[in-house]
Amino acid sequence: MLLEVENLHVRYGNVEALHGVSLMVRQGEIVAILGANGAGKTTTLSAISGLLRSSAGEIRFEGRSIHKTPAHQLVAMGIAQAPEGRRIFGTLTVQENLSLGAFTQTDRVRIAKNLQWIHELFPVLAERREQLAGTLSGGEQQMLAIGRALMAQPRILLLDEPSLGLAPLLVKTIFQTLWEISSAGVTIVLVEQNAHAALKLAHRGYVMEVGKIVLEDRAEALLANSQVRDAYLGG
Ligand SMILES: Nc1ncnc2c1ncn2[C@@H]1O[C@H](COP(=O)(O)OP(=O)(O)OP(=O)(O)O)[C@@H](O)[C@H]1O
Ligand SMILES: [Mg+2]
Predict the structure, then answer these.
(1) pLDDT category, 165, cuts 50, 70, 90?
(2) Distance, CA 183 to ligand 2 centroid (Å)?
(3) 35 close to ligand 1 (CB < 6 Angstrom)
């Protein structure tokens, strides 16, 4: 098992946001995490990537306990998160933003090769490499956030709402690219409000409600599940 989260509890001050979340991700899988606003999806990703500390429970990556490992070390181990809200650096160029993503990498040849691959995935990032990131459209900034995470050459990519606020055509493009990234051997955990697109892409999915996993199944089964259809797929 590549990633195992077991009975994870996370609190913000005195308020517990995750009440014992357990999930697992196999090498090569695309796993979707669905749930309403405030369910704890972002909190779960941030705990995995080390941006938030758990108060109880365990996270293992390739069998190694990582819930006390600093975030930068997790990036070096192969865990990268592309944050929600496209948190890129607007006053830096596209290229500078991508370079920052490679901070754990030292092999220049590998970095250049990886950059070339990212430019193939998102040609617009090559076209606009000298442009300030803040001047990109929402969709382009989202691509840059994913590209930046990929610059770390992750084994597992954690994506938080990659389709948020994008026009339908662009959503299609992004999901197509996620498929290509997965085909290249990168395992993906995908948090999405766009449940239909996420389940079409994913192998398996988890549904969260108020800090807990309430359902887990193969993506096809979740797509057909009446509870999921009513709550997340518009009936
Ligand atoms: N920085 C914070 N300080 C205090 N409480 C927080 C903080 N961030 C999130 N929370 C709370 O933790 C719970 C889970 O939030 P989280 O952001 O993980 O949900 P989410 O599923 O990602 O929601 P959304 O779909 O809106 O992104 C919510 O009740 C939220 O209000
Ligand atoms: Mg969120």
Answers:
(1) confident
(2) 26
(3) yes
